[in-house]
């Protein structure tokens, strides 16, 4: 066992455990905190895979932006004065069975990759290599994303407005 | 036993299933949105993992960047819609919003 | 000197009127004097075309440029050859000269119109239509592609249609417009059929390519009659456009339009487009088709000239005269002298436009068109009278005018044709035409212009009144008494007349007024480089005065002509003078003999009273057939159908309906059972989605 393995299991545990909190917690605020740790754990996994830029972006955008946004959503949509953050479940048994089967299928499919070693992992991925791809091959996608964000900005504000 | 691609995929599979479970069972739209975020993160993890184990290691990173942007956009719109629905229905339980049926 | 310079000048001259049209069409309503833009653009077009003409003849006298761009490639079924429709233009001596002639007349008419149409509320429409017409005419001249040519052919027809009915509040103008339109349809349809024959057989619209095929012996339908048919069909278009027999009736009625329009469109250019078409298509004419052209031309020439002798409306006289002059061009063309047809076209364009503008000046000054009410205008309109003399001499073919030079060629070529074939019919028709032409020209001079001391009121020298009838006719005029003081109008009227008069002098075309054809200035340019190789063996060229080799017969023809032509002209003039002395020059148009001529040999009535009722009878016959045979079949089919449907209805009721009801019953029950799935809840649907996904994965992995 190497340090890499320890780190992998550590982050995986954080991710899965806090994801379970997100899913099963009846308190919305707990779920939000669970989501926070899940996203941080994913960021750690990215770091393990040498995707340092993505790990950074993950924390910045998701944890800093999306999560705060979601907490705002909780505050605005639940009667905050009554502190009714609790939510309920339904369809628990069929959903559990179906998602379990689906996960089983995916993991069964993933077994084919047991031989793939991490030896091919590249160290010291430079940000400029990502940038080169993004601004050469995916330049139009990038531009469209910019446009999308503009549209979303307008759309979200116009929908939320009274 | 060292860590292989299978391990990463297994983690992302479980994460995906948890997200799907949340979407299927929770009765609060915000939690459903969280489940959606879990699914997207599972996909992101897959992207990076596959990219690292392939010959073109950077394409996956770019895809993840795009997914993050779209996820952020989607969250913004979804929350705006939720706020509107909450105003109109007084609730964000998706099962109570079924005027389409009537 | 680059050829491209000439080509660019040529194309600029073609498109300049379009610019004038667009400007005055779109902003004409808003600005009051915008029509001067049309005049300026007309001047620019004239300058461009004159420059192009000079450079072309100076530097490239032996070159034809023919450019085409593929516009639409049509690939038919596999195996058969594909063909493409191309946009094309050509620049050669012939069409550069033609374009210049059109631009000269157009500019002159535009200048003239600024005075003539002054104060008309629709003046901008008038000028934009004139510009549009000039552009269409230029486009017609610029294209060797029959299809493009046909498009512009219709556009000039359209411009003519709009301008005939320019004064749309007049019922007669609307009727004349419709008549011109309908009669042109007949010829245009023939022309179109000709184009289709060429297209079907040669898979091209380009006339030069068609010439090549014909020259190689590749004839439509593989036979000589195919070529004859093609030639006659194309000539059909020219017949209606140039108002030839038997489709000539629309031209006199077209005089309902403003007089400058008559000068430009219905005398100088558009009606000459038919002649131009036959000139460029002349290599396609074989002996038979050429003889048809010559015969139709000869008949029209005599028809027009003879009817013109008794007309009372000054414009109609010139309209019938136009028919006869165009007929002479076709006669020259049909007897092989393409050069003289074109030469006469050019000179005729100037002197006939001049005659119309002269009559316009008379009408503008006196507000009277009936020659019986006009008298002694020479005293009041000196310039108009002077130029009328020049034009009249030109149209009669008097020496030292352009008309003499070209008309001599026309008559000589028909005489040569007679000398070669022994068929003097067309030559005789030409001489008869000359007689009538001289008669009506001199008659107009005597009746309208000649200063007659007896007619002049003795007490006034500058306040003239034409006649008492005039006073009576115009007493209800808006302008009251002022119009009775006849005087020349401004320079906008006078200058165009003088320019056209100068252009009708022989020196501009040939130095020696009775010289040989070879001494014409234009001659070497037009015969040096043929537009296309001529038709095979049976071609019209062997008979040609201008194109063929020198021969004894030619000299003979050229020797006979001046005496014969001048002789009959003098005879005609003499006849007019004698009748004038006998006071019988303006007979009652309803007289026994004159009535026939006055009504144009009743051809109008032939169409309205014989052709139309025949067509109606024919349609009634078809209606009877329809009623008894077709309707009978239809009714029988109807009865049969009712029987069959009754049988089918029984089958329907029990078998089909039963099946349908059964299906409905099944559907109802199933739907009732299944509808519980449709809860309207998002998460329920999602559950189904996941379930289906797993089901599909299991299916795939089995």
Description:
The complex is a heterotrimer of chains A (162), B (102) and C (702). Chain A is 74% helix and 0% strand. With 162 residues, chain A is mainly alpha-helical. Chain A has one domain (3-87, 125-161): Four Helix Bundle (Hemerythrin (Met), subunit A), CATH 1.20.120. The mean pLDDT of chain A is 81. The relative contact order of chain B is 0.12. With 102 residues, chain B is mainly alpha-helical. The termini of chain B are far apart. A two-stranded antiparallel ribbon of chain C has the order 1-2. Mean pLDDT of chain C is 81; it is low at 458-483 and 533-542. Chains in contact: A-B, A-C, B-C. Chains A and B meet through helix 1, helix 2, helix 3, helix 4 and helix 5 of A and helix 1, helix 2 and helix 3 of B.
Structural class based on helices, strands and sheet pairing of chain C: mainly alpha
Fraction of residues of chain C in helices? Answer: 55-70%
Q: Describe the sheet with the most strands of chain A.
A: none
Oligomer: heterotrimer
Termini Cα gap of chain C: 83 Å
Work out the number of β strands of chain C.
Answer: 2
CATH C-level label of chain A: Mainly Alpha
What coarse outline of chain A follows from CA principal-axis ratios? Answer: globular
The CATH homologous superfamily name of chain A equals: NADH-ubiquinone/plastoquinone oxidoreductase chain 6, subunit NuoJ
| Beta-strand residue percentage of chain C | under 5%
SSE string of chain C: HHEEHHHHHHHHHHHHHHHHHHHHHH
User: What general outline of chain C do the C-alpha atoms trace?
Assistant: elongated
What is the percentage of strand-forming residues of chain A? under 5%
């Amino acid at each position: 066992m190497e340090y890499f393995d320890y780190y992998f299991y550590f982050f995986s545990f954080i991710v899965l455990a806090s994801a379970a909190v997100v899913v099963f917690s009846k308190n919305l605020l707990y779920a939000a905190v669970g989501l926070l740790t899940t996203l941080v754990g994913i960021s750690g996994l990215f770091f393990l895979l040498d995707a340092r830029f993505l790990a950074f972006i993950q924390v910045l955008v998701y944890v800093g932006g999306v999560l705060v946004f979601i907490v705002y959503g909780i505050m605005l949509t639940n009667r905050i004065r009554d502190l009714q953050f609790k939510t309920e479940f339904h369809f628990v048994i069929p959903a559990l069975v179906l998602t379990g089967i689906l996960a089983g299928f995916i993991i069964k499919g993933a077994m084919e990759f047991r031989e793939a070693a991490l030896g091919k992992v590249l160290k010291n991925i430079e940000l400029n290599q990502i940038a080169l791809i993004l601004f050469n091959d995916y330049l139009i996608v990038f531009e469209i994303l910019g446009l999308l964000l503009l549209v979303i900005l307008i759309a979200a504000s116009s929908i939320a407005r009274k | 036993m060292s860590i292989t691609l299978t391990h990463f995929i297994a983690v992302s599979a479980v994460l995906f299933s948890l997200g799907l479970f949340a979407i299927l069972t929770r009765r609060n739209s915000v939690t459903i949105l969280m489940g959606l975020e879990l699914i997207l993160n599972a996909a992101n993890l897959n992207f990076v993992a596959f990219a690292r184990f392939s010959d073109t290691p950077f394409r996956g990173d770019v895809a993840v960047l795009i997914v993050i942007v779209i996820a952020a956009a989607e969250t913004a719109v979804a929350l705006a819609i939720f706020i509107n629905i909450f105003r109109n229905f007084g609730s964000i339980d998706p099962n109570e919003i079924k005027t389409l049926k009537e | 000197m680059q050829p491209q310079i000439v080509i660019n000048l040529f194309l600029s001259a073609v498109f300049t009127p379009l610019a004038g049209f667009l400007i005055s069409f779109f902003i004409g309503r808003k600005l009051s004097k915008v029509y001067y833009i049309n005049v300026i653009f007309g001047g620019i077009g004239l300058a461009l075309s004159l420059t192009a003409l000079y450079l072309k003849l100076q530097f490239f006298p032996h070159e034809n440029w023919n450019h085409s761009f593929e516009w639409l490639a049509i690939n038919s079924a596999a195996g058969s050859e594909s063909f493409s429709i191309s946009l094309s233009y050509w620049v050669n001596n012939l069409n550069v000269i033609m374009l210049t002639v059109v631009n000269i007349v157009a500019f002159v008419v535009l200048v003239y119109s600024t005075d003539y149409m002054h104060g008309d509320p629709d003046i901008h429409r008038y000028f934009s239509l004139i510009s549009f017409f000039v552009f269409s005419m230029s486009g017609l001249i610029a294209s060797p592609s029959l299809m493009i040519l046909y498009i512009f052919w219709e556009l000039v027809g359209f411009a003519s249609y709009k301008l005939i009915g320019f004064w749309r509040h007049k019922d007669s103008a609307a009727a004349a417009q419709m008549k011109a339109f309908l009669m042109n349809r007949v010829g245009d349809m023939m022309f179109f059929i000709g184009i289709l024959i060429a297209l079907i057989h040669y898979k091209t619209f380009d006339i030069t390519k068609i010439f090549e095929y014909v020259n190689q012996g590749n004839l439509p339908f593989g036979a000589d009659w195919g070529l004859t048919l093609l030639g006659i069909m194309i000539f059909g278009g020219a017949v209606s456009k140039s108002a030839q027999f038997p489709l000539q009736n629309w031209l006199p009625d077209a005089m309902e339009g403003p007089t400058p329009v008559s000068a430009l469109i219905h005398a100088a250019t558009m009606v000459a487009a038919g002649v131009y078409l036959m000139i460029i298509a002349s290599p396609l004419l074989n002996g038979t088709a050429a003889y048809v052209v010559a015969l139709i031309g000869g008949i029209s020439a005599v028809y027009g000239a003879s009817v013109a002798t008794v007309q009372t409306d000054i414009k109609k006289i010139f309209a019938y005269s136009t028919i006869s002059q165009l007929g002479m061009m076709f006669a020259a063309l049909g007897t092989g002298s393409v050069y003289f047809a074109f030469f006469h076209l050019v000179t005729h364009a100037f002197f006939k436009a001049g005659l119309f503008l002269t009559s316009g000046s008379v009408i503008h000054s006196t507000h009277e068109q009936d020659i019986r009410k006009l008298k002694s205008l020479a005293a009041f309109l000196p310039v108009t009278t002077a130029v009328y003399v020049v034009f009249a001499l030109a149209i009669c073919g008097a020496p030292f005018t352009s008309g003499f030079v070209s008309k001599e060629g026309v008559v000589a070529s028909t005489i040569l044709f007679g000398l070669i074939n022994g068929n003097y019919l067309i030559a005789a028709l030409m001489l008869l035409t000359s007689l009538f032409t001289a008669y009506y020209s001199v008659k107009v001079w005597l009746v309208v212009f000649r200063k007659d001391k007896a007619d002049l009121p003795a007490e006034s020298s500058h306040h003239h009144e034409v006649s008492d009838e005039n006073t009576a006719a115009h007493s209800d005029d808006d302008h009251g008494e002022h119009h009775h003081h006849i005087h020349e109008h401004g320079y906008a009227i006078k200058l165009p007349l003088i320019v056209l008069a100068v252009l009708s002098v022989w020196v501009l075309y040939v130095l020696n007024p009775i010289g040989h054809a070879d001494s014409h200035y234009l001659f070497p340019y037009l015969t040096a480089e043929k537009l296309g190789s001529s038709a095979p063996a049976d071609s019209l060229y062997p008979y040609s005065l201008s194109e063929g080799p020198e021969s004894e017969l030619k000299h003979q023809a050229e020797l006979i002509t001046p005496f014969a032509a001048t002789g009959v002209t003098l005879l005609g003039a003499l006849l007019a003078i004698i009748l004038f002395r006998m006071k019988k020059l303006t007979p009652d148009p309803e007289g026994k003999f004159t009535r026939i001529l006055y009504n144009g040999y009743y051809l109008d009535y032939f169409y309205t009273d014989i052709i139309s009722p025949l067509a109606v009878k024919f349609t009634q016959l078809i209606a009877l057939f329809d009623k008894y045979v077709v309707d009978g079949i239809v009714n029988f089919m109807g009865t049969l159908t009712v029987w069959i449907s009754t049988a089918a209805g029984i089958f329907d009721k029990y078998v089909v309906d039963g099946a349908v009801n059964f299906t409905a019953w099944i559907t109802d029950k199933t739907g009732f059972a299944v509808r519980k799935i449709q809860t309207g809840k998002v998460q329920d649907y999602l559950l189904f989605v996941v379930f289906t996904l797993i089901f599909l994965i299991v299916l795939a992995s089995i």
